[in-house]
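Protein details
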Amino acid sequence: MKTDQVIKILFIEKSVEDAEQIISLLRNSGIAVRPARATSTEQITAALDELGPDIVLFDPSVGTLELREVSRMLDAHGRDLSLIALVGQVDNATITELFVNGARSVALRPQPKQLMAVIQREFDALNARRQLRRLEAALRESERRCDALLDSSTDAIAYVHEGMHVRANQAYLDTFGYTEFDDLLGLPVLDMIGANDADEFKNTLKGLSKGEKPSGAIELQARRADASTFKASVEFAHATFEGESCLQVVFRRQMVDANVIEQLQRDPVTGLFNRARMLECIDEAVAAATQGTKGQSLLLIEPDNWQTIVAGVGLAKADELLAAFANRVESQLTAQDTAGLLAEHTVGVLLHTRNDEGIKQWIAGLQQAIAGGIFDLGSRSLTITSSIGGSLLGERNANTELLLNQASQALRNAQSQGGNRSDLHDPAAREKADEERERYWKGVINQALLQNEFVLYHQQTISLQDAEGEFSEILLRLNGPQGEVLPGFFMPIAEKHNLTPAIDRWVLNQAIEHLRTRDRMGMPTTFFVKLTSGSLEDKDLLPWLGERLRQAALKHGQLVLEMTESKVVTALRPAQEFIQAWQKMGGQFALEQFGSGLSSFQLLNHINADYLKIDRSYMADLPQQQESQKKVADICRQARELKKQTIAEWVEDAASTSLLFACGVDFVQGNFLQEPQRLA
């Protein structure tokens, strides 16, 4: 499931707390959720109209509704969605009854991993069905347009089924001297070929009828209705006509020089295939994989520290160096392999007919060839290393976009470990590789704590209501081996190994130092600092924090601690005690992702937040989303009644800013207003 998608879930169960646990489980896994809850037919109807859910989670113990009744309502509404039965335990009779009554899947509440797997599988299946319908509609539209283009094309094009004409455009009729298509109907296409080329043409048709891939254009003498001939280039493609498989045959009198075509497909600097041609090769490899072809893999290769090297040798020599690098790669290829330039300095390689061990040996050989050689650039000589990431290609990942993403992620993994490394995506070895990467990054995090290798950024939070002073959100980065790393990558590992309390203290200490410096410069500022749930159990944190603020002569209100709503809900008691103690010291607290749960304002009965940071999902395409605008306005209205201030994050355009001002939002924050800047 893509983590940047918002999954809309309708809960049909009696317990709000049970629903919130599932929402927290999903959000903690990085999945954005837009939830609603219903316990009656009227509420279900309203939720179907307002929320438009993707998934309905039904608890048979709800008591007020039967599964069959709910299934009929969903079918009557006409929206394609997944109905999942949510139970505590199962047996054969229970599962049979649930499926008979309309459930698409059954999820076990006491088994979070199974529950997540079922929701993810059903959401993926739902998206696949929706995508299929879009593709079918697009196919129908494409067929309509192709038919129109066929008639207007100046190329002579015909569709042939079992060697007989079934469709031809006007240019085809004109080329061969026929008045109307009825003259061609049922006529063998072989009659259009000169006697000397008939055998070659017949053999080509036989091969294509067996499913062979078209090998390219063939040159022959074509014969007109009046028995005159002309030299033509003929191209073939598999097609369908009125639902039947057939061949598209194109006759061209004027031929393009093959050398010109070859030149257009090449990158002028490296001599490798250019991006467009290389993507075509990847598409062809993916198509072959869907037919069962094995032993293929895609590799992405980049020289390490490219920007630094270019800065040293100068831009004038960059192309020369890249060409030499590409030549080193090309020298390791066999006749069956393909290489092309996919990005500025990223070389893509398709390897064929190699097993896993053979691919690893090839990678090791290439890295040795690159690192062991010298690159001469005029009067300068240098050595470079390379990072290689790739993915094995099989039927399960036979999708060009997916394959490129897997190879790209593998490349980034290799680079993050210091360069001159390789990483090969292999689903069978994923778990082992993840464990190895986790051990590596745990060591990097520990080193960062010891050697101050974390970095702080800040993003200004703009007041729409003329609040005094400056306000900024503190953002954390880690200085990794290949540059700065975002917390979304390393914080889950830190949390798993209980390193987050130490990271929180480092961030708080640095933030206090910067606040003290700004006070001395006459720039009073308020910092919003994220706090992890691990710090709630740290009994010494608040005394230490109070002492640091006293030493820095800062007001406690200049430091606003914040946590996400989902984290607070899952640790309500310790969060409540921590926040109360912090506010008694004069501190302030902010709730992030507010409005994302089923009972966000009920949470404020237990958590006295000073700021409510509205969930970012409401900011997506805000000017076009009437539902989101209504929800934001409602949150602001209730917040004003409770004397709490609201903050809208991820604001990306001027139209959204104007709408948020009209809704009554107090603060806005986003890249449109200010990009994150390093805290200096």
